[in-house]
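Exercise: predict the structure of this protein bound to aspartyl phosphate.
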Amino acid sequence: MKVVKFGGSSLANSTQVNKVVNIVKADDQRRFVVVSAPGKRFDGDIKVTDLLIQYAKATLNGDPSDTITGQIIARYEEIATAFQIPQSAFEAIKQTILNLPHHDYQDDSYLMAAFKAHGEKLNAILIAQVLKASGVNAKFLDPKEAGLVVTDSPDDAEIIPTSYDRINEWADSKLVRVIPGFFGYNDQGQICTFSRGGSDITGAIIARGVKAKRYENFTDVDAIYAANPQVVHHPIAIHNMTFREMRELSYAGFSVFHDEALIPAIQGDIQVVVKNTNHPSERGTSITSHKRVNPAYPVSGIASSPNFCGIYIRKYMLDKKRYSQKILKLLAEYDLSYEHMPSGIDDLTVIMRQDQLTPELEDTLIRELVIALRPDEIHISHNYALLMVVGEGMANRTGIMSKATDALARQNVKLIMVNQGASEISMMFGIKQDEAKVAIKALYDTFFPDL
Ligand SMILES: Nc1ncnc2c1ncn2[C@@H]1O[C@H](COP(=O)(O)OP(=O)(O)O)[C@@H](O)[C@H]1O
Ligand SMILES: N[C@@H](CC(=O)OP(=O)(O)O)C(=O)O
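Solution:
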């Protein structure tokens, strides 16, 4: 049995939804259908999730929201009309959207979570109706009924492992179950969402719960490519990759599949196949635990992720043990997470995602670090990108680092940080964000020279 997940691009309008219907009908093993909210129909369009965020903010600020609700309702109406869904069913969706502000929420963050989650919830209700109208014996399944219980973190929840047994009770369901992605319920019954792009995570959780043979993740590209196709022209497709490779690459910027979604798949040893809704017969990318190294290409992929900053701290006779403890304690006090902390004899840099910091928080943090550490020098630099070169074939190979640094040097890309060794299948560079595209192209041409 298979779990299929359709991303926002696959459900953006009725034309796309029609392709989804055909894909579900084409294989009776596709028994669990996880859906995102309608995504972008064209470049510059706004995803329903982003409209819902605007709606939530307007509600919190007491601003008018008629225009935004009109836009959201119109997205569902176009699909409902095209598939001749009964007016009463569409009316229920419309009223749910209009009533969102009139519920009790524990605080603003739960309100935001509930507004966001309704993008997928209402879409799942609608797609179940569409499938039914198209002759599929389908039924909506809410994550609460499914048993998908998550941690009490409204916008960055994690699955509670006992959920898997409850989800497993649905494994023999005779109907096709349509489940909204992106959210679950905490043990108080409140909606908490995963991080952005988190419908991939729901798909993987359901796949592990029902012990699916395969988790098919339908999106808008024929495969996962060795570099972001928006940066490199016609990059080579990766048809087979390992969980480890994908996790490193998605963490570092391959937004096509959420890095956290790999964990349930790894735990359940479930094959993940990324496929294109627009070309479902293309083979896509299969992600498994099996290593298949092509010696000609030790590198599988090159990724880059922007919006990091680095806090540089220098102190002569730096006592690393005490220093790191104090830094970690301060970060925890301000609920900040860091990504890397490379250090030298007298200096250390804390690399973190800069969207966690407001200018005020940044000033406070630096002030507190000065008090706690009495450094000889401290400053923060913004707009770094992390650049990652990943491949199972890199393990036990020599010369990859020198090839990479040579290629970057030829393009005058300045290396701010280099990290190799944490994982034998990846190396990471900190570079300036505005040099990321040049850097990716240089590395791609080096590691995929004939393509
Ligand atoms: N290496 C890569 N290979 C394929 N797609 C990539 C890669 N890196 C980034 N992407 C982007 O990921 C997009 C698909 O992910 P996303 O927009 O989240 O889809 P969905 O709406 O289906 O969830 C592609 O359109 C592509 O622009
Ligand atoms: N709709 C949510 C969750 C998601 O996974 O969406 P998509 O499949 O469009 O990436 C978001 O925009 O974050």
